[in-house]
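pinning this so it doesn't scroll away 📌
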Amino acid sequence: MITGDMSITEIVEKYPKTADVLLSYGMHCFGCMAARYENVEQGALAHGIDVPRLLKDLNSATVTN
């Protein structure tokens, strides 16, 4: 389960499909150096993104059908 305190890089490395979710929210930062140290909640807040909604969508992307 993805939580707000996980680093952006950690999420994308563990769940590659989440990159599309981040891009859809305008968060292109998973390739930058700050992504290693910034957690997903911090990144979302910096971009004015609804954190609970983003986490829901990220977690949905980790479910395999």
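📌 and the second one:
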Amino acid sequence: MTASVLEIRARVARRRGVVVGAVLGVVVVLAVVTLSLGDYPIAPAEVWRTLWGGGDGAQTYVVFQVRLPRLAMALLVGAALGAAGALLQSLLRNPLAGPDLLGISGGAGAAAVFALLILGWGGPLLAVAAFAGGNVVAAFLLLAGRHRADGGYRLILAGVGVAFLCVAVTNFLMVRAQVELAQLALIWLTGSLASTPWWNVATVAVVVALAVPAVVASARWLPLTQMGAATAASLGVRTSTVRVVTVVTAVVLTAVTCAFVGPISFIALCAPAIARPLLGHGAIGVGTSAAVGAALLAAADLVAQFAIPGQSVPVGVVTGAIGALFLLWLLATSKGRNL
């Protein structure tokens, strides 16, 4: 290995470290602000003291039972969606690919609405239905993209079709439902982090942790598959296996987040699009995308809670607005014209 290659690798590693460190610093700042603000304000020093067991009863309850689980869920969901978006965009070689475009979020949402409005399910059963809906869409996408030559295009076209079908099914169920139930379903479909219990956070954390090895393996294999099927095969990598592992991993990460907080839009699209130019060397940047996704969702949840005085809105409203503006900006820049 030549000295120039070693220098390039060292430079890339340093830049990655700086970027990830900066993003994590932003996450820490957002966490402090999130735990401090609210109807019962707590100074940052008191928040730190409370986290280490030194706060009074009211501070302990507010921090550990109200604000911390919501913050933890925002970070977990943002990281999972950021990683899922990076995997899908790299697999399909399309910076606009993501769970929303491929119908994964729509499948989870349609299944959850059916369970809520038709079957009368709620709580854990609603989460199970949403998770199952996302995985049904995944199975269909894998069948549609089973041919190696055009698998990426087939996945995108099949995903767009499934997304529209899920929207149609969801709308049909909503217009036939009672007003009260339809309102509950609409709030869930928007995506919200409000009233997050610790068992929800623990469940999502366990699933994300179990998916980490597959995420790491996919991030290592995908650059090799992009060199072509023959080259990848000569290096001992099967593109069909990589496609299956990558899609299943992205679906699991997306479905578990949809199951507990609803289909939060645009995080999976925006996080990789921000991470790639920050890294600046054409890497997939799955870990960086996860960190950016966590920061984006935590920031969006702050806006959702405090942008309108005296009123909190679902975080999905904020991510939808931010994502739409970001997409318009992306399309208006040179990077957008190269999509």
